[in-house]
Every structure is written in C-alpha cells, then in structure tokens.
Amino acid sequence: MGTCELCGRSEVEITIHHLLPKEMGGTFGDTANLCIPCHKQLHALYTNEEIAARLSTLKELREDNQLNRFVKWIRKQPPTKLMKIKKSNQRKRK
Q1: In angstroms, rounded to a whole number, what is the distance separating the alpha carbons of residues 63 and 8?
Q2: DSSP conformation class of 5
Q3: Could you give the CA distance from residue 59 to residue 81 in angstroms, rounded to a whole number?
Q4: Where does the pLDDT of residue 38 fall: very low under 50, low under 70, confident under 90, or very high at 90 and above?
C-alpha cells in the first residue's frame, strides 16, 4: 500500500511503472509508483513507443490531456474500487 504518484490517492495498491519502458532500455532507469488503475489506463491509452517518445517523466504524464481526464475522475474514487480498463479505440486500430 502506498500513494500513487500520478493521481495522489493514498492507501492504494502500488505498482512500479518504468518511465522509459523496459523494452526501450529502461530496465534500470527511473520508475514511478502508480496505483493499478492509473498504470493500466496509461498502457491502455498509449503504446510503449508513445510512452518512450513523449511520456517518460512524471511531469509529462501529469500534463497529458487524455491521462489527465482519467486522473481527475479516479481521484474521486475510493482506493478499494476496482474497475475494468479497456484499450482506447485508437490503440485497438494499431
């Protein structure tokens, strides 16, 4: 349990997100502690290539418009809430 560095919710189960995806050389790079919903939403919206190209810092993640809409919503949810995350329609077409 901990605090998500993206949405700021506390007392949530935390996962380690590699800011630069491991397959892009980020195995030993910087990481962020993200709650499961934020982590899943990030990967549902963007490919590892997109994450590596323009979302490889916490600042960039916080400033992303699509992710920001989700973060505003998830902040209002209780830490125990589990939700189903689906790939974005753009990701499905790739």
Answers
A1: 14
A2: T
A3: 26
A4: very high
- Using DSSP, state whether 92 is helix, strand or coil: helix
**Residue 15: is it exposed, middle or buried by C-beta count within 10 angstroms (0-12/13-18/19+)?**
middle
Quote the pTM value. 0.83
d(CA 66, CA 42): 9
**Residues 90, 23: Cα–Cα separation, whole Å:** 22
- Mean pLDDT value of segment 24-38: 88
Tokens of 49: 């290539």
Per-residue DSSP letter, 77 = S
User: Predicted confidence band at 79 (pLDDT cuts at 50, 70, 90)?
Assistant: confident
Q: What backbone phi and psi angles, to 5 degrees, belong to 34? A: -120, 145
Task: Output the CA torsion 24→40→3→81 (10° steps).
Answer: -170
Using the predicted structure, report yes or no on whether residue 92 has a pLDDT greater than 80.
no
CB 19 within 8 A of CB 29: yes
